[in-house]
Amino acid sequence: MQTYGENWVVVLFMIVTAAFMGILLLTLNQIAAPSRPSAVKSMPYESGVPDVDPVVPRYTPRFYVIAMLFVIFDLEVVFIYPWAVSFDYLGLFGFVDMAIFLGLLMIGYVYAWKKGALEWV
């Protein structure tokens, strides 16, 4: 029968092994890999054609802000589902906690709305 301490020895062994392998592989790369940088190698290159035009981003930063807000507010479902499943067990305490959580989310939503973070144009 394993004791509680033996389980952590295995975890510690795995962490040490992973760190050792990472350091070993990085060191071998520095020793064995050839490194001959030049101006030609440092130029941007894509699909066989050198870049002649400046790179234009595909998406504006506004897209990423809206995507992050979606992820943040979509995560509330992850917390609401277990709450709804165990609603009878949690009772009034769980209801008040979820009301506070949703209130804080609404404050964040209104803040983002007032700052104009949800405007696409």
UniProtKB/TrEMBL annotation:
One GO CC term on file: NADH dehydrogenase complex
InterPro entries linked: NAD(P)H_OxRDtase_bac/plastid, NADH_UbQ/plastoQ_OxRdtase_su3, NDAH_ubi_oxred_su3_sf
Q: Which reaction does it catalyse?
A: a quinone + NADH + 5 H(+)(in) = a quinol + NAD(+) + 4 H(+)(out)
Instruction: Give the record's keywords alphabetically.
Output: Cell membrane, Membrane, NAD, Oxidoreductase, Quinone, Translocase, Transmembrane, Transmembrane helix, Transport, Ubiquinone
> A single Gene Ontology molecular function, please?
NADH dehydrogenase (quinone) (non-electrogenic) activity
Q: How does it sit in the membrane?
A: Multi-pass membrane protein
Please explain the role this protein plays, according to its UniProt record.
Answer: NDH-1 shuttles electrons from NADH, via FMN and iron-sulfur (Fe-S) centers, to quinones in the respiratory chain. The immediate electron acceptor for the enzyme in this species is believed to be ubiquinone. Couples the redox reaction to proton translocation (for every two electrons transferred, four hydrogen ions are translocated across the cytoplasmic membrane), and thus conserves the redox energy in a proton gradient.
Give the protein family. Belongs to the complex I subunit 3 family.
User: HAMAP family of this UniProt entry?
Assistant: NDH1_NuoA
- From the Swiss-Prot or TrEMBL record, give the protein name: NADH-quinone oxidoreductase subunit A
Organism for this UniProt entry: uncultured Thermomicrobiales bacterium
Name of the coding gene:
nuoA
